[in-house]
């Protein structure tokens, strides 16, 4: 064998280890310390062998405890967890490592790091340590995968190609690998790839033969990117699909339906391809997708790829829109999607494509899954298929992260409860991704109902409530206050711009002008407990902004009311679920609208008292607008903001004008939710001038804040306009009619 020097470290190249893993077609190694193993041993054929011996004292202890069993032991709790690890899988290495590029991420030391962690934890019967666990891992020797097993997933051409590599010279291996998609090749690649796939098969066989209750296969090269006819993404043979096909073939009655759960941070394109039209293999992958930008790039990992033909609905992609996912995101995806579907599918075997590159510390994945997070996922999967779970290593490139994650998974497989989770609050992006998958998969899985209602809504020509509500508001403001639509030029046409800006007809007169930017009002209601439907008679529209408009109107102010829609209804209505416009885009567009209103209406008005009231994100738009349009400051009397706990607080500072933040402090009054992070941040030192004049509200909810502080705000406006006589201004017709 052509073994590079750096792999010849003594602790790994232990001769007993190599001896133990020599090829054996019915390869099961028993641990004699386990009482179950002792009884099993008697039942097993002569071909099975005992791998090791233990210190006499330990054996005596076991002998005495097992001498007179009071009760028959539970088979599940007392059988062992299997471990596949073979040092020879470290020999697949780069023939000519690129200078200055450091070690390739698919580092041969990966599997040793995990093995060593298990040894150090006392879970492996290794001569170098004293075992701490009452029942150590049962070693399952790996073996070479056969051509027939590989060709159940790959083309014959692909098999021939991989096998031929042992005859290539180093020059060809280097060049050949560099022409492929994220692949390096070596003379030992065929051996390692065959052992890796063989190890995955033996882990599953060990479980299905009831030699072990579950198993972890610490194998490399990984497999889930390898396609039918092409190696890619560090993968040569697709280990998990090869194992699944081999087991379905061998255990026809007991292994018919298989769940492959892929928590590697990358999409397992090869696994998806292998079973895309297969109704008996449910593939669920959680991976970073970033709209198709993350490896392996393209649309195949999106939520719309659900399988085809008889396999439709049996392919479930949970594509994260961003990196940075946490335990809480993964646990939520398990609770809402993975477990309901998996329980419905009811598999005979669960195989985990277990990459640990979503782990905290992995530079490729940039996510934050903790060892406890992996343990919880494992624990949930163990409730399926009578606990028959085979965990097969895929990616994972931080040696420490993969070691501690794999250890946590192994402990859980062995029966230890998962550790506590540091966070249970999912990220907003994670929640969005999960909801998107739920809507898609509800087409195929009744456990995820309610179904997407878009078809029904389309047939009945349904209209979006946000448009209807604005229409109602416009009607009320017209009838009661004589306010009407102000012309605004928009580059895009949308029904949501109708009535977007409403104004009293006196908006250009010499009277105080209040310009309000706000979100649409809130709908509040509790769904019917039986049908979960939101019934109109139990649903309220809360619109605290109305109090401000009413007060200003009664006081004789001119009012411009701007509604900032959360969604723009297309003229070609699709009736599908609409996401809120991206926050940054809303802020930018509202800023442009503020500029348009200023240039076309506010600046032309004769008013000497101009007030701007920004609610939520719209307040940031106003501040951004003021920063870029200095001349407006002279005419602005006061800017009032409402910041709920979900909004960021904008600052106002200029690198050129030192007095700017002082002006801002004097000109602003900002009500900030009691739970806003700014209060925590400034617990010991009050916020500086650049944040404006802040006032902590007793509330977090925007409608409650608006309602509670209405008197305070109107009080401020009254004081600031006491030099103005309301009687001096003409009163609008509509109000006369009403009063
Ligand atoms: Zn990966």
TrEMBL record:
Cellular compartment(s): Nucleus
Transmembrane regions: none
GO BP annotation list: epigenetic regulation of gene expression
GO CC list: histone deacetylase complex
Assigned EC number: 3.5.1.98
Domain Arb2-like stretches: 464-724
GO MF annotations, alphabetized: histone H3K14 deacetylase activity, hydrolytic mechanism
UniProt KW keywords: Chromatin regulator, Hydrolase, Nucleus, Repressor, Transcription, Transcription regulation
Domain of life according to the entry: Eukaryota
Domain Histone deacetylase: 104-413
Reactions accelerated catalytically: N(6)-acetyl-L-lysyl-[histone] + H2O = L-lysyl-[histone] + acetate
Function as written in the Swiss-Prot or TrEMBL entry: Responsible for the deacetylation of lysine residues on the N-terminal part of the core histones (H2A, H2B, H3 and H4). Histone deacetylation gives a tag for epigenetic repression and plays an important role in transcriptional regulation, cell cycle progression and developmental events.
PANTHER family hit by this protein: HISTONE DEACETYLASE, HISTONE DEACETYLASE HDAC1-RELATED
Protein family: Belongs to the histone deacetylase family. HD type 2 subfamily.
UniProt-recorded name of the protein: Histone deacetylase
Originating organism: Aureobasidium pullulans EXF-150
Phylogenetic classification of the source organism: Eukaryota, Fungi, Dikarya, Ascomycota, Pezizomycotina
């Amino acid at each position: 064998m052509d073994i590079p020097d750096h792999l010849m470290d003594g602790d790994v190249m232990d001769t007993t280890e190599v001896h133990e893993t020599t090829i054996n077609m019915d390869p099961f190694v028993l641990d004699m310390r386990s009482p179950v193993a002792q009884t099993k041993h008697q039942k097993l054929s002569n071909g099975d062998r005992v791998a090791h011996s233990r210190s006499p004292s330990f054996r005596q202890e076991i002998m005495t405890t097992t001498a007179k069993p009071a009760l028959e032991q539970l088979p599940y709790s007392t059988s062992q967890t299997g471990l596949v690890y073979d040092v020879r899988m470290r020999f697949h290495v780069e023939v000519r490592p690129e200078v200055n590029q450091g070690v390739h991420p698919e580092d041969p030391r990966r599997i040793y790091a995990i093995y060593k962690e298990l040894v150090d934890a006392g879970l492996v019967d290794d001569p170098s340590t004293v075992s701490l666990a009452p029942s150590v891992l049962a070693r399952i020797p790996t073996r070479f995968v056969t051509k027939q097993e590989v060709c159940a997933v790959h083309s014959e051409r692909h098999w021939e190609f991989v096998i031929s590599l042992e005859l290539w010279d180093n020059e060809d291996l280097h060049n050949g690998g560099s022409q492929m998609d994220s692949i390096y090749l070596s003379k030992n690649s065929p051996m390692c790839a065959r052992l890796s796939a063989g190890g995955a098969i033996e882990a599953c066989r060990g479980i299905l033969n009831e030699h072990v209750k579950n198993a972890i296969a610490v194998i490399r090269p990984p497999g889930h990117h390898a396609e039918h006819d092409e190696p890619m993404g560090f993968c040569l043979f697709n280990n998990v699909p090869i194992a699944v096909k081999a087991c379905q073939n061998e255990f026809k009655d007991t292994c018919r339906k298989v769940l492959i759960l892929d928590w590697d941070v990358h999409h397992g394109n090869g696994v998806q391809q292998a079973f895309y039209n297969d109704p008996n293999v449910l593939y669920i992958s959680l991976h970073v997708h970033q709209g198709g930008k993350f490896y392996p790039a393209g649309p195949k990992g999106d939520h719309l790829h659900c399988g085809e033909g008889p396999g439709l609905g049996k392919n479930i992609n949970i594509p994260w829109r961003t990196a940075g996912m946490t335990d809480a995101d993964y646990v939520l995806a398990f609770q809402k999607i993975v477990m309901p579907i998996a329980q419905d599918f009811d598999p005979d075997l669960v195989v985990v494509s277990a990459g640990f590159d979503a782990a905290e510390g992995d530079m490729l994945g940039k996510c934050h899954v903790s060892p406890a997070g992996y343990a919880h996922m494992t624990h949930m999967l163990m409730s399926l298929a009578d606990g028959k779970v085979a965990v097969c290593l895929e990616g994972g490139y931080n040696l420490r992260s993969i070691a501690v994650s794999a250890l946590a998974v192994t402990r859980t497989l062995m029966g230890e409860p998962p550790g506590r989770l540091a966070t249970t609050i999912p990220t907003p992006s994670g929640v969005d991704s999960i909801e998107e998958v739920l809507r898609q998969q509800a087409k195929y899985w009744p456990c995820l109902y309610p179904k997407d209602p878009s078809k029904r809504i389309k047939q009945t020509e349904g209209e979006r409530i946000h448009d209807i509500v604005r229409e109602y508001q416009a009607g009320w403001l017209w009838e009661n206050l004589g306010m009407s639509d102000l012309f605004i030029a928009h580059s895009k046409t949308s029904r949501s711009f109708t009535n977007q800006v409403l104004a009293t007809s006196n908006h250009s007169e010499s009277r105080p002008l209040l310009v309000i930017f706000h979100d649409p009002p809130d709908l509040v209601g509790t769904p019917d407990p039986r049908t979960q439907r939101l019934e109109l008679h139990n649903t309220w529209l809360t619109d605290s902004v109305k109090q401000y408009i009413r007060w200003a109107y009664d006081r004789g102010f001119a009012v411009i009311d701007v509604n900032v829609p959360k969604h723009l209804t297309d003229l070609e209505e699709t009736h599908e679920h609409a996401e809120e416009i991206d926050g940054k885009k809303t802020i930018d567009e509202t800023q442009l609208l503020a500029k348009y209103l200023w240039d076309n209406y506010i600046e032309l008005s004769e008013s000497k008292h101009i007030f701007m009231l920004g609610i939520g994100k719209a307040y940031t738009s106003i501040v951004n607008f003021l920063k870029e349009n200095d001349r407006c400051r002279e005419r602005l009397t006061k800017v009032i903001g409402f910041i709920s706990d979900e909004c960021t607080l904008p600052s106002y500072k200029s690198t050129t004008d030192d007095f700017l933040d002082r002006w801002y402090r004097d000109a602003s009054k900002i009500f900030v939710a009691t739970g806003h992070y700014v209060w925590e941040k400034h617990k010991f030192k009050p916020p500086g001038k650049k944040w404006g004049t802040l006032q902590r509200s007793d509330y977090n909810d925007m409608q409650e804040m608006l309602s509670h502080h209405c008197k305070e705000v109107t009080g401020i406006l009254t004081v600031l306009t006491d030099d103005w006589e309301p009687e001096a201004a003409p009163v609008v017709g509509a109000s006369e009619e009403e009063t």
